[in-house]
Design brief:
The complex is a heterodimer.
Chain A: E1 4-7, E2 10-14, E3 19-25, E4 29-37, E5 44-49, E6 55-58, E7 61-65, E8 71-76, E9 85-93, E10 102-103, E11 107-112
Parallel strand pairs in A: 2-11
Antiparallel strand pairs in A: 1-3, 3-8, 4-5, 4-9, 6-7, 7-8, 9-10, 9-11
Chain B: E1 4-7, E2 10-13, E3 19-25, E4 32-38, E5 44-51, E6 57-58, E7 67-73, E8 76-81, E9 90-97, E10 106-108, E11 112-116
Parallel strand pairs in B: 2-11
Antiparallel strand pairs in B: 1-3, 3-8, 4-5, 4-9, 5-6, 7-8, 9-10, 9-11
The chains are: A mainly beta, B mainly beta.
């Protein structure tokens, strides 16, 4: 079945260092979304990418959707302690309309001051 | 932004009993809601898609007689875990999409932590 893997599973950085998580799908996606889940909390929507090769920025966060629409990445520049949490990519498989999302395995980020 | 609530936020029950979890969209109408299950430090697994006024669509491997879903109104979906057992202990999260806004993102409820003794 549809699988969406993320690497790394976990990363511990010092405040100010950069961080990147990679998302890879076994099948082509019509869109990719990114969510952040703080410890003990629920996922919160960050962004959606739809076009092949699309790049979007939100302050220190840069999101990219691969040309083949099977992979994506999230890069955080100069991490802060407020960036702590688990970052999930979530894709909509082609053929399912804009209904369900398949969540990636997640990358847990820990930032030390 | 759109707000989704869940009730209860946590519940402890005895093995063999049934537990109902409510998911409400507070400031928008949701024709479709989604139910997920999340184990500690793991990803969200989609259990079913709840459609207002019709039967839910269950993902492969999810027992529809075990996890009863009812979406009787445009703002409320319920998940009932029937004859709960310890292996059903998990974090259950619902989400909804605000179709009227034109957005595609899902808004998540705060989740319900179920512990079955």
């Amino acid at each position: 079945g549809q699988q969406v893997m993320q690497i790394p599973q976990y990363q511990h950085v010092q405040e100010g260092e950069d961080f990147t998580t990679y998302c890879n799908s076994s099948t082509t996606l019509s869109n990719i979304q990114w969510y952040k889940q703080r410890p003990g909390g629920h996922p919160v929507f960050l962004i959606q990418l739809v076009k092949s090769g699309e790049v979007k920025k939100q302050k220190r966060l840069t999101f990219q959707f691969g040309e083949a629409k099977k992979n994506s990445s999230l890069h955080i520049t100069a991490t802060q302690t407020t960036d702590v949490g688990t970052y999930f990519c979530a894709g909509t498989p082609y053929g399912t309309g804009f209904q369900k999302l398949v969540f990636g395995t997640g990358t847990r980020l820990l930032v030390s001051p | 932004g759109a707000v989704v609530s869940q009730h209860p936020s946590w519940v402890i029950c005895k093995s063999g009993t049934s537990v109902k979890i409510e998911c409400r969209s507070l400031d928008f109408q949701a024709t479709t809601m989604f139910w997920y299950r999340q184990f500690p430090k793991q990803s969200l697994m989609l259990m079913a898609t709840s459609n207002e006024g019709s039967k839910a669509t269950y993902e492969q491997g999810v027992e529809k007689d075990k996890f009863l879903i009812n979406h009787a109104s445009l703002t409320l979906s319920t998940l009932t875990v029937t004859s709960a057992h310890p292996e059903d202990s998990s974090f259950y999260i619902c989400s909804a999409r605000d179709w009227a806004s034109g957005g595609n993102e899902q808004f998540f409820g705060p989740g319900t932590r179920l512990t079955v003794l």
